[in-house]
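re: ur question from yesterday

yeah so i grabbed the chain u mentioned. its 99 aa long if i counted rite. heres the sequnce exactly as i have it in my notes:
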Amino acid sequence: MAGNEDLIQFEQLFWRVSRKIQYLRKKKFNDRLSDSQTYILVKLATEGPQKVSGLAESIGITPGGVTSNSDKLIASGYAERKRDEEDRRVVSGYGDLYY
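ran it thru and got these structure tokens back, copy pasting raw so excuse formatting
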């Protein structure tokens, strides 16, 4: 039974943390960014340039989804795309959220 109680407590805590993150994101961006877009900005700000395939794998969406979300971030002015001259698969994004 202790395992079930731990699981229930974990689920409740996870839900509260998730709701708090959503609240803070909506407060900062007036609900203009999706969860995926926010996560892309966080990954780029904390880990630097990323390959689209790497971002897709870590976020759990398709590479096309990363490209689509990145295009929206760029169009909204939250990020910019810079190509790595040595490896064109690497895209750098810079957002103002975490700097």
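noticed a couple things. The CA atoms of residues 37 and 70 lie 7 Å apart. also Residues 95-99 have pLDDT under 50 and may be disordered.
anyway ttyl
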